Amino acid sequence: MNKTILEIKQLSTSFKTDRGFLKAVDGVSFSLQEGEILGVVGESGCGKSVTMQSVMRLYDESRKSVDYGGEILLENTNLFSLTSEKMQEIRGRDISMIFQDALSALDPVFTVGNQIEEMLKIHTDLNPPERKAKAIELLKLVGINSPEKRVDQYPHEFSGGMRQRIMIAIALSCHPKLLIADEPTTALDVTIQAQIIDLLLELNKKLSMSIILITHDMSVIAQVCHRVIVMYLGQIVEEAEVCDLFDHPTHPYTKGLIRSIPNIANERPEELFVIKGTVPLLSEVPQGCRFAPRCSYAKDICFATMPDLKQIDKAHNVRCWLVEEGGTDHAE
Q: How far apart are CA 250 and CA 13, in angstroms?
């Protein structure tokens, strides 16, 4: 994992509202190596999806309702410097995204083969017979039985897990360098979730494809990822290799997420740990540390001044005043 595929530098994304522009992503920086699986975790409303949709430049920039800042470097090409037409060429070809609701993402009036072939028509020079043959090959790659028959079927004729596999087939159609998976196992039963995760791992190994996995499920992160970013209210609060994060979680928010994982090994049921409060609205971002109002160990400085994201160990960064004071062992 030596080649850097993606490098994000101080990314910010703001949306125009009646109260002016509100910043949903604030100073996010990280990099992704070739063949690496990076997990992005946090509660709903923490900015995970907005960050990755900003990487894809999916928001309508022509209406002046979104404002970007920073740099997104895809193999040293700043995506913010590209025209809309050039960015359209990169989407699907170099970067693909799997959305969490496959039924909404797939068009119900076109066959799944048509929808895979549409991507091939835009980004390749394949003729119609070659495109159909490629669509069948992709359905087979993602584990759909009888692909020669099912390529001509419609989305409603597939189960939820199969529709998610079709979304993966569409995303893989042009062999992208980077695959962004936005909660790909949401609303699927646990057996199908495991199959989708196994499929992503197999594709990562077989194709040496870099993957960014967005999720709120820490158990999935532990199973799949090489490195993890924990986000809270538009900022990175902790970043580490996956084993280091679970063995030595440092930020109180990270510790809370890990403690909230159910432990089936317990001999008797225990009340699940819950992080008190909820993620604030963007119009109500607190001064100082953004997690301070929900943190049981916050001090005066936490409410007054924003801590920087600082390195505490090799490849382990944390944004917390408790670290500044010599450790967070007491912040359980």
A: 27
Task: Provide the angle, in degrees to the nearest 10, between the axes of the packed helices 128-141 and 112-123.
Answer: 120
The CA distance from 84 to 159, in Å, is 35
Q: Where are the alpha helices (DSSP H) in 96-248?
A: 102-105, 112-123, 128-141, 147-150, 160-172, 190-207, 218-224, 242-247
Residue 186: half-sphere exposure toward Cβ, Cα within 13 Å: 15
Residue 57, token pair as written in the block: 């430049």
Q: Where are the beta strands (DSSP E) in the chain?
A: 4-17, 20-33, 37-41, 66-74, 77-78, 95-98, 178-182, 210-215, 227-232, 235-241, 310-313, 316-318
pTM of the model: 0.90
According to the 3-state scheme, what is the secondary structure of 273-290? CCCCCCCCCHHHCCCCCC
The domains found in the chain, sorted by start residue, are 4-94+176-324 (3.40.50.300), 102-175 (no CATH)
Statement: residue 251 has pLDDT above 90: yes
Q: Please calculate the CA angle 99-102-103 and round it to the nearest 5 degrees.
A: 140
Question: Token digits for 86?
Answer: 């050039």
Q: Are 40 and 52 in contact (CB under 8 A)?
A: yes
* CA gap 322, 332 in Å, rounded: 12
Residue 192 burial by Cβ neighbours in a 10 Å radius (0-12, 13-18, 19+): middle
Q: Encode pLDDT of 209-247 as tens digits.
A: 899 999 888 888 988 999 999 999 999 999 999 999 999
Angle, alpha carbons 209-112-185 (nearest 5°): 50
